[in-house]
Amino acid sequence: MNKTIIEARGVSFTYEGADSPAVDNVSLSVSQGEFLAILGRNGSGKSTFAKLLNALLLPTAGELTVNGIRPVSEDDCYAVRKSCGMVFQNPDNQIVTTIVEEDCAFGLENLGTPPAEIRRRVDEALESVGMSDFAQASPSMLSGGQKQRIAVAGVLAMRPKIIVFDESTAMLDPIGRRDVFSLARRLNIEEGITIVWITHFMEEAALADRLVVMDGGRVAMEGAPREVFAQTKRVLALGLDVPEMMKLADGLRKAGVKLPQRLMTVNEMAVELCRLKSKN
Ligand SMILES: Nc1ncnc2c1ncn2[C@@H]1O[C@H](COP(=O)(O)OP(=O)(O)O)[C@@H](O)[C@H]1O
Ligand SMILES: [Mg+2]
Asked: Would 41 disulfide with which of 76, 128, 199, 239, CB 3.0-4.6 Å?
């Protein structure tokens, strides 16, 4: 079992003046190298939880440890932000300069990193997200998916252990969405970066190692995607849906096609349909 990199124990957060907490008594551990997806209807507390992970907000109750640090002082918050990067929903809000590579260097410059080291890390980060050819380009000329890749490069240049994506594919077209999701998956598998992937897309959640469903600031469901989506009624009651392939499989079964239970992804469906075809 990998070591725990995020540990929340009874974590709550109440916004000033609010009657009820936005994050309510959440206990959750994330292992190093895990790809965790968080689902939940609007207002269920996902973004607030993401901001707690990044020490943009501090718990109003409970204990949160990120990469061994419990953010209390300014210095701790700084250290948490270095180890846990964030990619937000709107790529335009994350881009601060007019040249791609300057944008990626922004965080490092703020840390007072020596120029040669910045050069090295920015080149490496752009390479890693497949955007080296665009180093001198203006971000305004890029597609949404490319802008998100630049935002990821800016985060990678800080060499984080964890990256939180807060609905980072929500504003992208299907190609951009797939692009950014596979980038996160690759960084997870090849570089061992722990990923917290907040999404509204069931297809993305289905591909995570583990799934957490939030509701009213609490953890309502938790488990492997297959286990969670198998409880279809509960999932629907929480304002979510099940992956399209599960619905298609249900429909096909009703029409007499023999398909195994627990079929969830496009790949699994493709394999099963090919198997049927080769039998006939
Ligand atoms: N800055 C804020 N001030 C006060 N309340 C907020 C603020 N941001 C979010 N909330 C409230 O906190 C709750 C959780 O919101 P949020 O974490 O954004 O949920 P989600 O990301 O799941 O949509 C909601 O009731 C929302 O209205
Ligand atoms: Mg949100």
From this structure: 239
> Is 151 found in the same domain as 276?
no
What is the CA(48)–ligand 2 centre distance, in A? 7
Judged by DSSP in three states, 159 sits in coil
- Show the domain range for 12: 4-229
Q: Is residue 56 part of a domain?
A: yes
Q: What's this model's pTM, rounded to 2 decimal places?
A: 0.95
Ligand 1, atom 7: nearest CA belongs to which residue?
15
> What's the one-letter identity of residue 275?
R
Q: For 145-166, how does the pLDDT look when each residue is reduced to its tens digit (9 = 90+)?
A: 999 999 999 999 999 999 999 9
User: Does residue 237 lie within any of the structural domains?
Assistant: no
Residue 100's nearest CA partner among 144, 145, 146 is 146
The model's confidence at residue 110, banded by pLDDT at 50, 70 and 90, is confident
Residue 196 to residue 156: CA distance in whole angstroms: 15
Q: What pLDDT digit, counting tens, does each position of 130-149 carry?
A: 999 999 999 999 999 999 99
Same domain for 77 and 37: yes
